[in-house]
Amino acid sequence: MVVMGDSAIFVAAALVLGAILGSFLNALSFRFGTGVSIARGRSRCMRCSHTLVALDLVPILSYLFLRGRCRYCGTHISIQYPLVEAVAALLSLGVYLLNPNPLLYAFWLLVWLTILFIVIYDLRHFIIPWSCSLLLIGLSLLYIFILWQQGASLMGDWTIFAAGPLLALPLFLLSLVSRGQWMGWADSGFELSLGWLLGLSLGGTALMLAVWLGAAVGLLLIAYAHLPKRWSNRGRTMTMQSEIPFAPFLALGAALAYFAHVDIFSNLPIFF
Ligand SMILES: [Zn+2]
Fold first, then answer.
1. Ligand 1 centre and the CA of 81: distance in Å?
2. Is the confidence at residue 24, as pLDDT, over 90?
3. pLDDT band at 240; cut points 50, 70, 90
4. C-alpha span between 13 and 24 (Å, rounded)
5. 72 CA from centroid of ligand 1 (Å)
6. Strand partners, 51
7. CA atoms within 13 A on the CB side of 123
8. What is the Å distance from ligand 1's center to 69 Cα?
9. What's the CA-to-centroid distance between 180 and ligand 1, angstroms?
10. Distance from the alpha carbon of residue 51 to the mean position of ligand 1, in angstroms
11. Highest mean pLDDT: which of 183-187, 223-227, 230-234?
């Protein structure tokens, strides 16, 4: 895609805004659920508690210039900081390129940052906060309302509303039979909103890609854990029962469907 003139300014603004919001998500991910308010005081180094100045807090760049270490005590800074900031910047850019309309940009940016937060939180704590699931479900219902306002016939195209429950059903059943052991309850809530936001075909693509990617990574981890001791220095063994968060795979599948237009169901006659 060629970007010139005015739009170059918007592209830069989208990247900067995304990086700043990513930095906010980082702070939120460390404080959420710990009882420490996000608004509480200035940012501090987790190790030496030195108050960080503006120069230490520039998204991505501070990490690069400080070579991943605290300026005051030299302790390693988690790679999560620049990684989340970079991903948020790219999400913001991708959302802007697909939705130059300011309101739609704001809407989809909120959707993708919520999804990014769910992924960070699930990777850190193996759980999706209910508040995030409910926020995403609320946003997806708002999206259906927007579609209806724009003239979509909810009666004429039954898939607009059915996509969410239909796609969430397999995950919901997995949670039901295993009482939440094989699949967390919040994962079906996540897929419910993806179905509404992406529609039946793209939402189904997100789910299929998530299952394939999850299975591939799961098998790799099991194979890695079964390597002879001298090849593997990890003490932890991985079995089929080991918990692998599913939300990151759902998010990756959804990103491929939404941003890269991967659609494995588009040619099936049932969707015409
Ligand atoms: Zn420090």
1. 15
2. yes
3. very low
4. 17
5. 5
6. 44
7. 15
8. 8
9. 40
10. 9
11. 183-187
